[in-house]
Write a structure and sequence with these properties.
By secondary structure, this protein is an alpha/beta fold. Helices cover 31% and strands 23% of the residues. The longest helix is centred in the middle third of the chain and has 19 residues. The protein starts with a strand and ends with a strand. The structure holds adenine (ADE).
């Protein structure tokens, strides 16, 4: 993987020379190139910031050095990594970075990180960059750091360790916290009984000493659940939904579900299409229109403890008999990015009757996240959709 990082404190990123990520760099698994933003400022003081228009505290990073620095990165594309990187701008106002973000970004051949400082970067840089590459603003968590560098250290480590060959024991990647949506179980090493400085004897749990692998696995799973319930109860709900759809209550929608489904549609689209006055199609539908849709499609609903968390609808194409249409794949926003959409898609595909040869779906041409999900599942864009701004995707049915 190639990684570029632009910062006014390039030495901050020296820590990436150390330990496993440093070793991966020396072995050529990660090609990390750090750039000093000030090299792209041309005045005597190498100025990269200025006061904000409209007033307000602090300084704003200027557009010109950023566009030149990123142009320098883009100009160094070398054919092995594609024409442009995915640009990640760390910031507290971004999408939340998680293990699933790390897994997703670990698939990209080329990442570039833009470390902001002060109050942030002139908004026009984001527009300019989005015309040239995919741009994602990503936050480590709900707190404010002084700049993006610490976030880059964290993200590069989380992403880098998922690359083949970086962590020696691949099994340790499977067994760790957040894989499978649960926290890690407690671990112990010798001695079997440790006497602390107060003379208190602290034994290792007996089950770990007995050599019964089944009992150990069972104990560890229980510990993961108990620990997740105690420290991160919010994750238990997610774990129950992502491990498989089987954990959810499944039903086929009737008119009685129309109101709830209408709310789910609006919740799913609200972040995608603004302003609301321009809504058409799914987000614009009222409950009556949703109920009408239920008569043309079979809509599958999935609930967790009564809450509607996802749905997808399917039907045989009215004009092409052997094509299976999949539509309105929806996951409540707080559970997105955790594999539930992929599971819903697999569910919809599995419902196709035996004579179906082609699977088909349609989505917004600008929905990068959904397009990624569909492409990963083997779909290719086959042309513009019936509604402006949408594309049709399809794939042959396998097996
Ligand atoms: N820059 C400043 N605060 C940040 C945060 N919470 N996450 C990522 N980058 C940041």
């Amino acid at each position: 993987m190639r990684i570029d990082a632009v910062s006014i404190f390039p030495e901050y990123l020296d820590a990436l020379d150390i330990s496993l990520i440093g070793k991966a760099r020396r072995e050529g698994l990660i090609d990390l190139r750090v750039h000093d933003l000030r090299d792209f400022a041309h005045d005597r003081h190498r100025t990269v910031d200025d006061t904000p228009y409209g007033g307000g505290a602090g300084m704003v990073m200027k557009a010109q050095p950023w566009s030149e620095a990123l142009t320098h990165v883009l100009d160094s594309a070398d054919g092995t990594t594609g024409a442009a990187p995915v640009l990640i701008v760390p910031g507290p106002g971004g999408e939340r970075f998680s293990q699933s973000t790390a897994r997703e970004l670990a698939q990209a051949p080329w990442l570039a990180f833009a470390c902001g400082r002060y109050e942030g970067i002139d908004e026009r840089v984001y527009e300019w960059a989005a015309e040239r590459m995919e741009v994602r603003v990503v936050s480590l968590g709900d707190y404010v750091l002084n700049g993006g560098e610490v976030a880059v250290l964290a993200m590069v480590e989380a992403i880098g360790r998922l690359l083949p060959g970086v962590v020696g024991n691949a099994e340790s990647l499977v067994e760790e916290s957040h894989e499978g949506g649960l926290l890690e179980y407690p671990i112990y090493t010798k001695p079997a009984v440790w006497s602390d400085a107060d003379g208190i004897e602290r034994p290792v749990p007996q089950v770990l000493l007995g050599g019964n692998h089944g009992a150990v696995a069972q104990w560890r799973h229980e510990q993961r659940l108990a620990r997740t319930a105690a420290r991160r109860p919010d994750l238990l709900h997610v774990a129950a939904t992502t491990q498989e759809l089987a954990g959810l209550d499944h039903s086929v929608a009737t008119r009685a579900d129309a109101a709830e489904l209408t709310v789910l549609q609006k919740a799913c689209w609200i972040e995608m299409v603004t302003p609301a006055e321009l809504w058409w199609g799914a987000p614009a539908e009222d409950a009556a229109a949703v109920a009408e849709g239920l008569t043309h499609w079979t809509t599958h609903l999935f609930r967790s403890e009564g809450r509607l968390v996802g749905s997808v609808r399917v039907r045989r194409d009215p004009h092409r008999e052997t094509t299976w249409q999949i539509g309105r794949l929806m996951v409540v926003p707080d559970l997105q990015g955790r594999g539930l959409g992929r599971a819903l898609l697999a569910h919809a595909e599995a419902l196709a009757p035996a004579d179906i040869t082609t699977l088909w779906l349609n989505t917004g041409a600008d929905q990068a996240r959904l397009l990624r999900l569909y492409k990963k599942a083997g779909y290719a864009v086959v042309g513009p959709g019936e509604n402006a701004g949408t594309v049709d995707l399809s794939r042959p049915r396998r097996g």
